[in-house]
Amino acid sequence: MSGKPRLTYLNGRGRMEPVRWLLAAAGVEFEENFLETREQYEKLIKDGVLMFEQVPLVEIDGMKMVQTRAILSYIAGKYNLYGKDLKERALIDMYVEGIADLMQMILMFPFSPPEAKEKNLESIKERATNRYFPVFEKILKQHGQDFLVGNKFSWADVQLIEVILDVEEKVPAVLSGFPQLQAFKTKMSNMPTIKKFLQPGSPRKPPPDDRYVEKVLKIFKK
Predict the structure, then answer these.
(1) Domain residue ranges of the chain, discontinuous segments joined by +
(2) Which residues contact 34 (CB under 8 A, 6 or more apart)?
(3) How far is CA 172 from the centre of its chain?
(4) 57-60 and 6-9 as β-strands: parallel, antiparallel, unpaired?
(5) What is the CATH number of domain 6-79+198-220?
(6) Cα(222)–Cα(218) distance, integer angstroms
(7) Which uninterrupted H or E stretch holds 31?
(8) CATH fold group of domain 86-190
(9) pLDDT for the residue 1
(10) Which of 76, 114, 142, 194 could staple 81 via S-S, CB 3.0–4.6 A?
(11) How many CB atoms sit inside 10 A of residue 56's CB?
(12) Which residue ranges does the record assign to the GST C-terminal domain (predicted)?
């Protein structure tokens, strides 16, 4: 083994993309094993590799980790992106959980039936502009610092820049009323590790298309 974390998932965003983002932001190189068939997935289950018969799977530090939240928490703690004390960790957890609610809507959007696409897109826009982005705009404005927690780069910042860019792909002007988030986006996008991840040819995956949706359904639907 190379010692690099090994990620097993499909060759697409899904629930693994926040893991890719966090590792990349921490400057950690990783390897990827892409599932292409249902047989590959079933073999992982048969071999007892997937504790709850679900991916993502991340092999790191001798562990076979599943459950996205547990994986992200471990990576954040290992690479000093999880605050300096329990209070900062609690703030990071709150912010991450809030962002995860919006990310879940984005995650499910490609699987919407055609007749529901427009309505679901409007829901993403409405939630982003009225519920989630105002919270982070206020946080950044009130403490006047570059980062969300303790004026130190953390897991919460990584999740926020990821979800901002994901929403912007669907609603390009979504940040028009949020000057603090616009500045945050610019700062984060120019951090060396994140800038590298945003370049063509990086492990960052493109927006899911119909082929990706078809593959997900083929591998995971019984």
Answers:
(1) 6-79+198-220, 86-190
(2) 8, 9, 10, 11
(3) 19
(4) antiparallel
(5) 3.40.30.10
(6) 8
(7) strand 31-34
(8) Glutathione S-transferase Yfyf (Class Pi); Chain A, domain 2 (1.20.1050)
(9) 44
(10) 76
(11) 22
(12) 85-209
Hunting for tokens 């919407």 — which residue is that?
A: 112
Structure tokens at 9: 């998932």
Which residue, chain included where needed, has tokens 């079933």?
42
Amino acid at 128: A
CB-based burial of residue 74 (10 Å sphere; 0-12 exposed, 13-18 middle, 19+ buried)? middle
Q: Give the list of residues 6+ apart from residue 92 with CB closer than 8 angstroms, or none.
A: 76, 82, 83, 148, 149, 154, 155, 156
Q: Which residue has the tokens 């590799």?
A: 49
How many angstroms separate the CA atoms of 144 and 160, rounded? 17
Q: How far apart are CA 29 and CA 103, in angstroms?
A: 24
Task: Give the DSSP H or E segment for 80.
Answer: none
Q: Quick one: DSSP state of residue 97?
A: H
Q: Round to whole Å and give the CA distance between 41 and 219.
A: 7
Cα(117)–Cα(119) distance, rounded to whole angstroms? 6
The per-residue pLDDT for 121 is: 93
Query: Quick check: 211 and 218 in contact, CB under 8 A?
Result: no
Per-block mean pLDDT, blocks of 10 residues, the chain (222 long): 86 96 97 94 91 92 94 97 96 95 93 92 94 95 90 96 96 94 96 96 94 92 72
Question: What's the mean pLDDT when you consider all of the chain?
Answer: 94
The one-letter amino acid code at 18 reads: P
Residue 32 and residue 10 in contact, taking contact as beta carbons nearer than 8 Å? no
